[in-house]
Automatic annotation (TrEMBL), chain A:
Organism: Coffea arabica (Arabian coffee)
Presence of the UniProt keyword Protein biosynthesis in the record: no
Main localization (coarse): nucleus
Signal peptide (residue range): none
Keywords annotated in UniProt: Nucleus, Repeat, Transcription, Transcription regulation
Pfam family for this entry, one: BSD
Protein name: General transcription and DNA repair factor IIH subunit TFB1-1-like isoform X1
SMART domains: BSD
Coiled coil segments of this chain: none
From TrEMBL, chain B:
Residues in coiled coil: none
Organism: Coffea arabica (Arabian coffee)
Family: Belongs to the TFB4 family.
Protein name as it appears in the record: General transcription and DNA repair factor IIH subunit TFB4
Its biological purpose: Component of the general transcription and DNA repair factor IIH (TFIIH) core complex, which is involved in general and transcription-coupled nucleotide excision repair (NER) of damaged DNA and, when complexed to CAK, in RNA transcription by RNA polymerase II. In NER, TFIIH acts by opening DNA around the lesion to allow the excision of the damaged oligonucleotide and its replacement by a new DNA fragment. In transcription, TFIIH has an essential role in transcription initiation.
Keywords in alphabetical order: DNA damage, DNA repair, Metal-binding, Nucleus, Transcription, Transcription regulation, Zinc, Zinc-finger
Residues making up the signal peptide according to the UniProt record: none
Subcellular location per the Swiss-Prot or TrEMBL entry: Nucleus
Lineage: Eukaryota, Viridiplantae, Streptophyta, Embryophyta, Tracheophyta
GO molecular function (one): zinc ion binding
């Protein structure tokens, strides 16, 4: 009822609220910036008047399915489903809607210079569109192809990009996905100490704070509890720094003394209970069925040097038990630090706000705890596995191996099929001569072979080895062969014929070549033709190809005479490929028309 | 065991030449009127001696390719003194005896010239070369020369391709000199892939001249010499169902077997192909 150029499209349609809904019959009117739906029944509440600006995309069912549906989706999730009486109607509306959406959405999107507005034929996310546009901008050859085919209407956008998924993905993944990991160096406990005054300065950056919170859950907990109720952040960190200073002096007794005075300081100086709990839980999760052999190297209890090779400065006098909680073990600290660094960044929060960092870390830890607690299934599986491994072997019945049986095909089948294959290949490369039949029995053949050998043994090599005339002929022949090769294939093996052509011709040839590749790719992939869509596609491609065909002929003629031969050598395979495609197309059309003579309704 | 190469500095043109001689008796008796095995041998022996003369450190190893077995018949570096090529003759005779004894009794009526075990001798040559590679940092540059005439054995296709690829990996060029009636597709591909020279001499009684001009060149000199190149290599495939050479066809996506028509099931690997007629236009690909 309307053709594409018109500004208004009016069609009968039913509006459905969902796919199953029978729908309200009415009239759908599409204009450039809005669509309206008026039901046939004037009393029905289903009336719509929606601008295309709010419509973000449209979906539709494929041709040939039960219903001809068109679904217009909005940004907020609302959608309008229309069912049409037949597919041509729906397709007209669909195309109109596509261009209307593109027009109205154009304002918010960057368009490349050649005004290549990609025609939306499917639901595309903004990221995908961006990727495509970026790829087009980067690669000018691709852009030329795109312009030629998609804008020229020969290929659709989806088809063009269908074969280039890898390119798009590559582009996408080029974006750096790596994030900076946690620093491996431990926060130095040696503060900047002024030699003159008694001041000790600590530097705390958000990065360091993150590490502290990750490594010492008690500190994190204390932060959440104390700040901002009991003290300000600065005070908190001052106290913490004091605690660190005390630790660095390794004066346990002084540490105990200060802890006794200041409650909050005590938190920093004591052992970290939360860490202890975590460690205990980890130990429980160790798989007892893992068979690890211990040998002398693992015996670190009796080494003369304690603490894994780190020399201890202070003597090993046993302190009062009241001081034990204040002793800090370097190895423990190192292990904890290493575990945190390996885990990497667990949270994504910005580092500026200390409180939010602390909370985020606390949340992740809680989540982990909850997950572990609820992992009953894992426990069960472990118990089962343990019981299985500790079974006494000779009391068990033999168990079937849990493997699928191999199915090895007989290799002879494969080779036999190769056999005739190779024979026929040979048959093709025979230059006129047929295969010699050997009508001699094996024994005789061997006899004659051995005779030849003994002949030489007794007579020696023939003298002269080779006749001089024959040698001369051979040399001449070889030289001619080599020089003719050089003439045909070029002086320098790296140089190609293309370089010797004038620039314009070269560009044209390359352009035609890449377009032919693209067209042929799509042409051949649409065979065998089973639907109308493929038929139209093949026809369009064939028309495009037949346009290129005469251009190639022209190029051949326009070149200078000394280059003509080489250019025709280059153009020949292109023409052959096109000829093959045309022949196939014509044969197919003929078949189709012969068949449709029997069946009146086409296929 | 070859004596260790002296610790002199090896010049660029020292080569190790592995020669694979085709001793298929059926082939030689079928070609008898044109060219006899004895003439062939005399050309080849003169050539081998001249290789040994080119450089004191050159090595030549000859393998015989029979129809039932392959074997080493000559190694120039065995023994204390470099030997002349004629010393391969007794060994060759022995080899022919051995090969004959391995053939089956009932094969009296000849039904075409059979193929010789090219894949076997290629593999043996490559093994020898590997041993040389591992003998130390100083070793001559190896290459393989196939003097072949028998037709290509289709059952050896996979094995030959494997040896070709392994030669390519170790950077050992395979030169081919085809003395038979027809071109050999296997050897064409071998030389193409490994960077060797493929030649089918027009005049067999000038064989020595061909060998000395083209195949005596060592690998270093090939960088600045121009050697004959074949015009093209026949890479065309044949379909597995009718054995026709085709340019366009259907390929199984599992095992890459080629068919000229649409099939329901791949005859090589047994995988079933999907339906051609579907409602979904994008699924109608060539299988």
């Amino acid at each position: 009822m309307a053709d594409k150029q018109q500004q208004v499209v009016v069609k009968r349609a039913r509006h459905k609220s969902s796919v199953k809904d029978p729908g309200t019959p009415g009239v759908l009117k599409l204009t450039k910036d809005r669509f309206t739906f008026m039901p046939n029944d004037p009393s029905s509440p289903v009336k719509h008047n929606v601008e295309f600006r709010t419509i973000k995309g449209h979906k539709f069912t494929k041709d040939g399915t039960k219903q001809a549906l068109l679904n217009l989706t909005q940004d907020q999730g609302g959608n309008y489903i229309f069912e049409f009486e037949n597919f041509p109607d729906r397709n007209v509306c669909k195309d109109f809607v596509a261009s209307a959406i593109a027009l109205s959405g154009e304002a918010g999107r960057t368009v490349p210079e050649k005004s290549a507005v990609p025609i939306q034929d499917e639901q595309l996310s903004a990221a995908e569109m961006e990727r495509r546009i970026k790829l087009l901008q980067e690669d000018s050859d691709l852009q030329k192809l795109h312009k030629q085919f998609v804008i020229g209407g020969i290929l659709s956008e989806a088809e063009f990009w269908a074969t280039r998924k890898k390119l798009l993905e590559q582009n996408y993944s080029r974006r750096p996905k790596q994030r900076v990991a946690l620093k491996n160096d431990m926060w130095s406990t040696k503060p900047l100490a002024d030699g003159q005054s008694n001041r000790v300065t600590f530097n705390l950056t958000p990065e360091i704070i993150l590490q502290i919170f990750a490594e010492k859950p008690a500190v994190r907990q204390a932060y959440l509890n104390f700040v901002p109720n009991k003290m300000t952040e600065k005070e908190f960190w001052t106290k913490y720094s004091r605690a660190e200073y005390l630790h660095s002096t390794k004066n346990v007794i002084a540490a105990a003394a200060e802890a006794a005075e200041d409650e909050e300081l005590a938190v920093f100086l004591k052992q970290d209970d939360m860490l202890v709990n975590e460690a205990r839980k980890k130990i429980r999760q160790v798989d007892p069925t893992l068979d690890m052999e211990a040998d002398e190297g693992d015996d670190y209890m009796h080494l003369p040097i304690q603490d894994h090779g780190l020399p201890r400065n202070d003597n090993k006098d046993v302190l009062d038990s009241q001081y034990e909680p204040y002793r800090r073990s370097f190895s423990q600290h190192l292990n904890q630090h290493a575990a945190v660094v390996l885990q990497g960044r667990v949270i994504d929060v910005e580092l500026g706000d200390t409180r939010s960092v602390a909370e985020a870390l606390a949340r992740t830890k809680h989540a982990e705890l909850a997950k572990d607690a609820s992992d009953v299934y894992l426990d069960k599986e472990r118990l089962e596995r343990i019981s299985r491994m500790t079974e006494i072997e000779d009391l068990q019945a033999p168990r079937d191996p849990a493997v699928a049986p191999l199915s090895i095909k007989d290799p002879r089948d494969y080779f036999d099929s190769q056999q005739a294959n190779a024979f026929s290949t040979l048959g093709d490369t025979v230059s006129g001569a047929k295969q010699l039949k050997c009508s001699v029995s094996t024994r005789e053949a061997y006899c004659s072979l051995k005779e030849c050998i003994s002949e030489i043994k007794f007579q020696g090599l023939t003298e002269p080895t080779i006749n001089s005339e024959v040698a001369f002929k051979v040399l001449n022949g070889l030289a001619q062969n080599i020089s003719s090769n050089k003439y045909h294939l070029g002086r320098n093996p790296n140089e190609s014929v293309l370089d010797s052509l004038p620039k314009i011709t070269r560009e044209e040839l390359l352009l035609h070549w890449s377009s032919i590749q693209e067209l042929l790719k799509h042409f051949w992939s649409s065979y065998p033709i089973t639907t109308k869509y493929l038929l139209t596609k093949a026809t369009k491609l064939k028309d495009a190809m037949s346009q290129i065909y005469p251009k190639l002929q022209e190029i051949k003629e326009s070149v200078q005479s000394d280059l003509r031969h080489q250019v025709s050598l280059l153009v020949q395979p292109m023409l052959q490929a096109l000829d093959a495609a045309f022949a196939h197309y014509d044969a197919d059309v003929q078949n189709r028309s012969a068949r449709s003579g029997e069946r009146p309704n086409g296929f | 065991m070859s004596p260790p190469v002296p610790s002199k500095i090896l010049t660029d043109d020292v080569s190790l030449l592995m020669v694979l001689i085709d001793t298929n008796p059926h082939f030689w008796s079928s070609i008898k009127p044109h060219f006899s095995f004895s003439k062939f041998l005399s050309h080849v022996l003169a050539f081998l001696n001249s290789i040994l003369l080119l450089n004191q450190l050159n090595q030549v190893v000859v393998l015989a390719t029979g129809i039932n077995s392959c074997g080493y018949v000559f190694d120039s570096s065995s023994g204390s003194v470099s030997q002349r090529a004629e010393s391969l003759l007794p060994k060759l005779e022995e080899f022919a005896e051995n090969d004959e004894s391995l053939s089956e009794r009932d094969d009296d009526s000849g039904n075409g010239v059979g193929s010789s075990l090219l894949s076997g001798s290629l593999s043996m040559a490559l093994c020898y070369i590997q041993r040389v590679f591992r003998s130390g940092p100083l070793h001559p540059q190896p290459r393989i020369l196939c003097l072949h005439g028998s037709p290509d054995g289709p059952g050896q296709y996979v094995a030959i391709m494997n040896s070709i690829f392994s030669a390519q990996r170790s950077m050992v060029p395979i030169d081919s000199c085809v003395i038979g009636i027809q071109h050999s597709a296997f050897l064409q591909q071998a030389s193409y892939i490994t960077g060797g020279v493929y030649l089918k001499p027009q005049q067999l009684d000038g064989l020595f001249q061909y060998l000395a001009t083209v195949f005596a060149t060592d690998l270093h000199s090939r960088n600045f010499l121009r050697l004959p190149k074949p015009v093209g290599v026949d890479f065309r495939a044949s379909c597995f169902c009718h054995k026709n050479t085709i340019d366009m066809g259907f390929i199984c996506s599992v095992c890459l077997s080629i068919f000229c028509k649409h099939q329901k099931k791949c005859s090589t690997c047994g995988s079933t192909f999907g339906q051609a007629k579907t409602l979904d236009p994008s699924a109608s690909q060539q299988r």
